[in-house]
Structure formats: structure tokens, C-alpha cells
Write a structure and sequence with these properties.
Helix content is about 35%, strand content about 25%. The strands form six sheets. Strands 12, 13, 14, 15, 16, 17, 18, 21, 22 and 23 form a ten-stranded mixed beta sheet that branches.
Amino acid sequence: MTHVLANVVFPVDRDPDILPLYLDPETWSTIEGEGVRVSANAQLGDVLDRRRARIAAGRRMSFATYFNAFPASYWQHWTSVRRIRLTVELSGEATLLVYRSNGGGIRQRIVTHEVSGESTTEVDLDLTQYTDGGWIWFDVVADTQDVTFRSGIWSTDQEPARGGKASIGITTYNKPEYCVETLQSLIDAPDVLENIDRIFVIDQGDKRVDAREEYPAIAEGLGETLQVITQPNLGGSGGFARAMLETLDRPDSDFVQLLDDDVRIEPEALRRSIVFGRFTTTPTIVGGHMFDLLDRPKLHAWAEVVDDKPFMWRNLFQERMPHDFGAQNLRQTPTLHMRMDAHYNGWWMCLIPMETVREIGLSLPAFIKWDDAEYCLRAGEAGYATVSLPGVALWHVSWLGKDDAIDWQAYFHVRNRVVAGLLHSQTPRGGTLIRHSRRVDIKHLMMMQYYPTHLRAAALRDVLSGPAHMFRSLDTAMPAARTAASRFPETTVHKDVDAILRSRKGRQVFSVPRRAERHRVKDTSSSPTGILLRVFTGVSLASHWFHTPKSVNLRTPEVEFGKGDANWWRIPRYDSVLVSAADGSGKQIYTRNRALFRKQLVESVILHRRLQRRWAKLAAQYRKALPGLVSPEAWRRVFEENK
């Protein structure tokens, strides 16, 4: 029996920005290390439909692209598949060239076929030389007339290790427009739906998916496959835990495919992830990569790991992400030919075998942040690896226009990182986690960011109270964090600062608009290091502790910073600053508050010392409580109580 591992596909929508992810331009030129396209034969007009394309006479089209090359190293390493077949259907006179690469990105041609007329070419290939990395792809070169590419398939006659379908779990909070688009994409991809048992939309908002005008047609198109479940906002972890729990009751589902709501999917990628999961030698979590929804050729996440000593997540080759496929193609980027092993995958797109769920339980009740990383670390300790599979991806709103480290999410960043460290860190006393967390507090305080410092202290107090707080505060921690913002003036985003200054002329806060001093500061100096860092930190802390801000500076900001210039080593020089919001929607005013600074600094020192002293006992406490925090029974009680 033939099993299709991957179909060659072209974009669902006519977006020229994403064309390089499917079709490779003929000629690239490199300038100062950056790939710049100077001649491209791949145009939107060449795409005839989802599976067909035109190669103009005398031109060459390469399929050495993210979505259409075959990630051979991953298939060799994680599955028992050792032979595959490439089937290419063409119309016209052309040359078919098949290439491979190794882990260093070195290209080798392995097959050449001359074809003419209506042709079907089958190329049998072995997966035995891709231990360290490597892809397989093909190029088509048209002769004197246009050639039509009619289809391309990567397949095998070997049998998968397991069968079964997947249920999809989409967690959403007031993003119904994205959800209906995802559901419509699935309706338009019947070969994907063949692999789907149920689609669970966990709707936690008041802007309901089933209230959209498109919903009746979508419900009719998906029939009993679609199930919309409403519940209070329990965060991503509450939504995905519900999807896992519902899938446990589906005997035909061998996997649960988790999807974020604010995404745009590539349906073929969903199908590939399920197929790969079936072929893995042992049950394996299969994650997808993340492209930027607002800058679609840019890849933000390839393989992500958690460094144990600081217990912090990061990308492998962090300095090379994001990668812009519009500027540098697959063949120009040796790093992308390596097989990269991940510790975890974001739950924007992640396929989890139900064997894993049955053995290790559901999501930690974390609300948001670190729930995906903690789950994959927990799975890894139980013997279930995580693979971030090339060719499997979606588009997600990136974090570049956000600054969730200083909004209400600051609570969850620190609380969940510390809890995950208590559960999984192998380094005594969490390594440098506590020291790093204390430094983050100091940076916030030097930047006059008292709101996130307040939330971080609340998070540490909750951690110190023991694991029972996680379920107890699941539906209250976020509202409490957001409510606290009203006590901190810096959280207000001013849409029109000049208008506010004019309207408050003569009042205490903005009495004298000193426009000459409200200039945009662009300081090109870099952050201090070594002994200079120690001196700078000491001087800044002493200044905030002893210095009394000038009253005029409390009324009107001294200077204005662009978001990218508002660094922790620049802002402490001033009593008040005007800083652009991360999304560019307005500006925030940061003002020195000596009394609050003193209170929060002392509190931070005390809490971090307490955490350090109690680390070993807390780790034992949280690890003992973990089964009860992630069990289906515990989550079922939560959902019953929150109907």
C-alpha cells in the first residue's frame, strides 16, 4: 500500500510574499551575506491551482523550498522509513533534476531525467545517508516551450507504526474571525479532513465563533466533525486541557492536534504532521514551526530548547532567527539543513499522541506561558520526544509588536517559569534562575516599571504558598493582574500626548510642556558589562533610593524614547520619560517613585532569598503534587465547576 508522506502544494491565497516558501526563484545574488533576489522566474501567474504550476520556456523552477522539499534527515532519524518514492507528473519537454543535501548544506545531484509529453516520473530514493541533516528536492527545467507541472508526491510503501486519526483542539478568546477562516480552510481540504476525527473549538470569550454569520455554512460543511464547546476563560492551558480531555473520550483519535486561534494554517502541513506522527518509531510529539502572520516569509521558531542552568527557553541558533525566506532561500542557508532537536514546541501547532496524554496527564493549570514547554519537558522525562518538523508550519501573530513582559502577563512569565523549574530543573536550587529573576526585577525598577515588578512579586508569593494555588487562582489570577494595572499610571497608553499636555496646562502633572526637552533620544551606546555593569547598577540603585525627583520632571517627562531605544541602561538617567508602546499605538509615561522603588526592591530581595532557601523543599512539594494538577479527574472537576 502506498502512503503519501507529503504533497507538493502551492499557496492557498495569492500572496506574493509567501511564494518563496513554495517555489524557488531561478537566480539569487549574495550581498554582504544577505541573499537578494535579482532575477526570479517564479511568479504568481505561474501558479495554476493548488497542485499545478507553469514553468516558462527556457526557465527553471526549483522546489528546494520550505514547504516542498522533503526533510529527509527527520524522517530517517525519527521513523523506520528507509525508502521513499518521488512521483512527478509533467506536460511538455523538460529536464527533471533531483538533488540532496547533507547536514552542512552541501548540494549533490542524484538523478537526472529527460521527459516529454504527458509524463509520470517515479524516482526511488533511500533514506540512509541523512544522519546529521539534509533535504531532498527537485528542479524542473523547461525546454523551448512552456511546461505544466501537474503534481508531485513524496510517498512510501512501508507501513506506519500506528494508525488512527487526530482530533483538533482550537482554543480561542474573542478571535472568532480567525477561527472561521481556519475552519473554512479545513473544509476546502478534504484530504486533510480524511485524517480528522473531531474538531473541538474551545470558545472562552464573549465574541462567539458560532455567532459569526459564516458559522451556519461552516457547521453544515463540517457536520458532526465540528463541536463548539463554551467555557469561562481559563487561558490557553484551560482550553487545551479541555481539548485533550475531550479527545480522551474519542476511541478513533490517536492524536490531539493543538492549534492557536490567531493563526493562518497551511492545510497540507496539518496532514503531514499527522502522517509523521503515525510513522514515528515511538510515540512522538510533532510540532510545527511559526511564521509571522504580518511578515509572512519570516520564520520565527525552528527548534526551541530550555537551557537548564538559567532555566529559560530560547531558539537554537537564536542569533539567526527570525529567518527571512524572501531574502535567503533554503539552499543559501546551511544552518537549516542541520537536523535540530527540540525540547519543546509552542502550542500554536502541536500534535500530541494520546498515549502521552494517558501516561503523563493534561496541561499544567498555568493559564498561559510555559504550559507548552513544561508539558514537553514532562513528556521527555517519560520517554516521549518532541520534534519540530520542517515543512510543518503555520502563520501566527508574532511577539515583535507586543511587550508582554511588562503587561498583565508578567505574572505568568515568572510564576510559570519558576514552577516549571521546580518541576524539571536538574540544577541545584534552579541554577541561575533565581539570580536572573532578581536581575529582571532590578531592571524593571531602574526603568520605573513598577507594575510588572508588583506582578512578579505576587507571582513569587503564590509560588511560595505551594502548588494548591494553581487551580485555586486559575480563573482569578488574570483578572486580578489586569485590575492591578489601574494603580500604576505607567500602564496608561496615551494616544495623543500633545493633546493631553495642552489639555492639562496649569495642572500638577503636565503644567509646563517643555518641548525642547521632550525630544526623541537616540543613544547608540551599548549596555555596560563587567565591572562597568556593577558600577552602573550600584549607582543607579543608589540614585533611585536617595534621589528626590525634581517636581518639574514629575509634571512633564524629560525626554522621549522610541521603543527600541528605551533600554535599561538609558532610562535610569532621568526622573521621567516618554516611551513608545510596543505596538506603536501611543506612548507611556514612566515617572520615578522613590517610595515605591524602595518598597519593591526590599520585597524582591526578601522573596528571592526565601525562594532560594526553600527551593529543594518546594521542588519536592510541587513534584509530589504534579499528578493531581494534571490529571483528567482534576481538570474534569474544574470544567464542571465552571460550566
